[in-house]
Amino acid sequence: MLWKSESASRCACYRLDGRCLIWCRGNGAPPPPDPISTRGEDRRAAPQRPNTFFQRLYRQAAGQLGGLEAREHTAQVVASGQRERRFRWDAQDQQDASLRRPLPLLVCSPTMELGIDIADLDLVHLRNVPPTPANYAQGSGRAGRQGQPGLVITYCGALNNHDQHFFRNQEEMVSGSVRAPRLDLTNEALVRAHLQAEWLAQVAVPMRQSLETVVNTDNYPELPLREGIAQQLQLGTE
Question: What is the mean predicted confidence (pLDDT) over 112-135?
Fold first, then answer.
């Protein structure tokens, strides 16, 4: 059932052959204690009680969730714009055959926190407690943008000290003070990035949805500016 493989660190690893697994329907009783996670514990203790929440979920609501679709929205996803349109789903999008159907769930990185408003978004689920109240305000503020009530659910990890602190002190995150942004003037790379961003804004270089409109990615690894963009960045004589 086990086969040997080598990891990147050249250490011997053993993996379980998935073809040897037998999937059987359970009877609702909890499984026996895991011999790895319960190592050193007294396994003769009282058996674990079944989780009635998941029992009801699998027996009653699972059938309704079978057709539910969710997609990712991150900076690495090329089709983020199309997925955002499917998530918004207005009357004009219904005529676009390429969008197929509405997208009820969107799993997002912080790319959806800044500057993106979806008027009829009602629910935001945060998979962990954000680092600061400012991050919480940005993420939770996506819901209820049209004046309607918005529901924000934040999951707190049981083994995460940060999450557990704010689980016990919720007002520090939900009603905490948002600090003004700071710029470390001793960070040369950060200052250079801000100056370059201001320069691009002043010369009105259109970024659109991809850097490929500015940088010639065919010439790798030099990545030179495209000819038209290079001319826009040239300083005049005056």
Answer: 81
Give domain 70-174's CATH number out of 1.10.3720.10, 1.10.287.990, 3.40.50.300, 2.60.40.10. Answer: 3.40.50.300
The phi-psi region of residue 40 (left if phi > 0; otherwise alpha if psi is between -120 and 50; otherwise beta) is: left
Measured distance CA(214)–CA(70) in Å, rounded: 32
pLDDT tens column, 199-236: 877 877 776 667 778 888 887 788 888 877 877 777 66
Token pair in block for residue 39: 């190592």
Peptide bond before residue 104 is cis, with ω within 30 degrees of 0:
no
CA atoms within 13 A on the CB side of 180: 3
**Cα distances (angstroms) measured from residue 156 to each of 51, 127, 133, 178, 182:** 19, 8, 15, 21, 28
DSSP H/E element including 174: helix 170-174
